[in-house]
Write a structure and sequence with these properties.
Layout (H helix, E strand, L loop, with lengths): L1 H18 L7 H10 L5 H4 L4 E7 L5 E14 L2 E14 L2 E11 L5 E12 L2 E12 L2 E10 L2 E10 L11 H12 L6 E6 L5 E16 L2 E12 L7 E7 L5 E6 L5 E3 L4 H6 L12 H24 L2 H16 L4 H13 L12
Antiparallel strand pairs: 1-2, 1-14, 2-3, 3-4, 4-5, 5-6, 6-7, 7-8, 9-10, 10-11, 11-12, 12-13, 13-14
Pfam families: CATIP_N (PF21772)
Organism: Stegastes partitus
Subcellular location: Cell membrane; Cytoplasm, Cytoskeleton; Nucleus
Amino acid sequence: MEAPLEEDVATAGASAGTEEQDLKASEEAIAFMSSIVFSLPSELQKCLFADSLVTVSEGGRDLGKFSVRVEFGRRVQQLCLLLHAQSHGAIDDSPCGTTVTAYLTPDLEVLEEDFHEYVKLDGHSLDKRCHMVQRDGQMVIDKITTMGEEVTKESVSYPMSALRGLVTEGSNLLLMRLMALKKKVPEHMTFVSLDQRLRLIHTTFSELGLKQLEVGGEILEVFGVERIVNSEEDSPTSWHCYFLDDGHLASRVQVGSPVIMRLLELPSKTEKAFEKIPLAWEEDMQMRSEFLDRKDELKAGHASYLRQHPEIRALVSDFLQFLLLRKPDDVHQFAREYFLPFASRPPPEADPKAE
């Protein structure tokens, strides 16, 4: 039964792309994205850092954490921006989380993006995976939704000409970071996005202005950006994000949700905890000789593996930052609870598109 389902969805997606040609980003939004490339390297260089926030309930109970890192990377020999964002935790003792890895051009055009969301409930689970990649002038999008034992596959494509001003789950995080650094959101910032059914919709950004927020025991002035995601079937969804002067995310909340993501400690204090500590080598000539013989081989192998899996550095860095923020007495128990949601995730399937 899966083949007809995939065929129907793919056909629907193709026709939807034709019907939605009139749904476009505003000229102001397209101009803003185009202007970013001319800011290199000053503006984008300021965006290359990591954020780490904790997720808490209205009552102050810890529910998990959220992190996002931006760095320069390469994709098929093309210099680009690599963004990795991750949130995980538990709501009502049910593990849940989201991971986004995006490769973006300097003007925030999506070259490739992976999105994964999961919720593990008693007796069944929900798992959503979406992959989009530019190929032959098209944005090809594949989505797999697993609910218990039921698997639904969708595949659509849009011509890149129809996706001018596209903002995704990954690129919107960097876009807001840039707006926060400028401390200004121009008017008429209307972009296009994709909804849960992979249809084109509008998403808008507007300025919330300045307000006072407590971070790490200090009262600071933060700059707010609102993102509104429209829907053909449901009410619009709004996100309010507030940023420090240097672009670091201070708080993030979905309007109407009892859950808030907030910064516990100023980034400057957190970053000091990661100063390099020199290692004292034991003077063992035989071990040193063996190490030097294999040094280049090991470095090349490790570097190759890390390039293929950029999520490794992000995952380890996120854990260390959260560990140092919380400073638990029982590190082993803390590590167990931190990585427990990952144990509930099914093993990744082999990617037929991987080379």
